[in-house]
Amino acid sequence: MDKYNEAQSQDIRNGAGTVVGYKVPDLSDEPKTSTPLVDSRIEWKGPADTYYNIPLLKKAHWTWEIMLYFFLGGLSGGAFLVSSIAHFFGAERDAPLVRAGRYLSFVAILISPVLLIKDLGRPERFLHMLRVFKLRSVMSLGTWGITTFGLCNGLVTVHQAASDGLLNWCKPLAWLANKLIPVKLLEVVGSILGLFVGSYTGVLLSSTAVPIWARARRVLGPLFVTSGLSTALAALSLILSFGRPKHDTVERLERAELITTASELGLIASLVPMLGSLGKPLFKGKSSLLFTVGSVGAGMALPLSLNIGKRLARKTDSRSLTIASSLLVLIGGFILRMEWVRAGRKSADSTADTHEYNTTEWHEGHK
Fold it and tell me: Is the predicted pLDDT of residue 265 greater than 70, yes or no?
C-alpha cells in the first residue's frame, strides 16, 4: 500500500473519511431478515475528494464547432417547422416566409454535420454511427435524426428551387422535382424530426454524468427546442425585414417570438431552484455574466421588452426595432449553448458538485 492509501486509511479510521459512496453498517450480529442490505445504506458524511488530485469526471473538450453545431441544429429544425406551418395554414401572401424558411433550414442543416465531423476528426466516425440503430442511445438516435431530417429537408428545398425556376437549366430534373416529390408528407415528417433535432442536443447533454447537465435533465431538452424556435423566428424576421414582406406576416412572427421567448425565460427561471448550488457556473460569479447578462438579459428579456413596447406604442411596423430585436435573439441563442457547454466543464471539474449531485439524487430516490 502506498503512502497516499495509508493516509486515506488513517483518515477513515479517525473519522475523517474521504470515500466516495456510502457507508454500510456492520450487521453481522443482527438477526437475518428478508430486507435487502441496500435498504440499510446510510449516507457517507465525509468531505469531497478527488482521485489522486484528478477530477472524478472527464470534462468535454468541445470547441466552437460543437457550440455552433448545437445552435444551427436548433435553428434549422425551428425554421423548417415555421415554414411548414406557414405552408399548411398560411395564405398566398406567406410565400416569402415559406421560401425563406426552407432555404434557411437547408443551409443550417447542411453546415451542421460538417461541423460535427470536423470535431470528430475522422469523417468515417460519423458513418460508423449509421451502422447501428439503438433506441437507448441518444447519440445513435441523434445521428439518424440528423440524417433523416436532412433528407426530408433537402427534398423539400429541391422542390422549392424548382418552383423558383432555379433548376430550369435541367428541365427533366425540374419536372421530377415539381411532380414527384411529396412535399406535404415530407413537411409533416420533417417537422417532427426538426423538433427532435432541436431538442436532442439538450437531451444529449443531460444524459451524461456531468452534475449540472444531469440535474437539469427535465429542462434542457425543452429549453433547447424552445431556443431553436426563437432563433428561427428571429432569423426569419430579420431576413424578411430586408425585403418587402407583408406586414401581417412579420407581425405573426413577432407574436410567436413573444411566446417562445417568454417560455425560455420561464424554463430558465425553473432551473434556479432545481439546480441549487449546482447552478453556480451559470448564475453566480463573474464567469456567469455572459449567460445572465448576454443570453438571458440581452438575448431574451430585452427583445421581449422591445416586442411588447412596440405593441403598446403601436409601432409594429418599425423595421429598425425588428432588426435589432432579431439580432439580439440570435446572439443570445448562440451564447446560451456556449455557456451551457462552459458550465458543464466547470461542473465536471468540481468534485464537490459531483458529490452533491449524487447525494441529492440518492435522497430523492429514497423518499
Answer: yes
Q: For the segment 57-96, what is each residue's pLDDT rounded down to a tens digit?
A: 888 888 899 999 999 999 999 999 999 999 998 777 888 9
What is the distance between the alpha carbons of residues 81 and 315, in angstroms, rounded to a whole number?
A: 28
Cell of 209: 454524468
CA 109, CA 182: separation in Å to the nearest integer?
20
Cell of 103: 432555404
pLDDT at residue number 140: 83
What pTM does this model have? 0.82
SS3 for 255-299 is HHHHHHHHHHHHHHHHHHHHHHHHHHHHHCCHHHHHHHHHHHHHH
Distance, in Å, from the CA atom of 212 to the CA atom of 350, rounded to the nearest integer, reads 10
- Nearest C-alpha neighbor of 336 from the set 288, 286, 274, 278: 288
In whole angstroms, what is the distance from residue 49 CA to residue 170 CA? 67
Which residue type does 318 have?
S
C-alpha cell recorded at residue 363:
435522497
pLDDT digits (tens, 9 = 90+) for 208-217: 889 999 999 9
The sign one gets for the Cα dihedral 31, 32, 34, 37 is positive
Spatial separation of the C-alpha atoms in residues 17 and 46, rounded to whole Å: 5
How far apart are alpha carbons 162 and 154 in whole angstroms?
12
Q: Classify residue 257 as exposed, middle or buried by CB count within 10 Å of its CB (0-12, 13-18, 19+).
A: buried
**What mean pLDDT do residues 240-255 have?**
81
Give me the pLDDT at residue 37, please. Answer: 44
Question: Cell numbers of 130, please?
Answer: 449509421
Bridge-partner residues for 42, per DSSP?
23
Question: What is the per-residue pLDDT for 130?
Answer: 78
Nearest CA to 201 out of 222, 215, 187 is that of 222
Which residues have a Cβ under 8 Å from the Cβ of 343 and sit 6 or more positions away? 212, 281, 282, 291
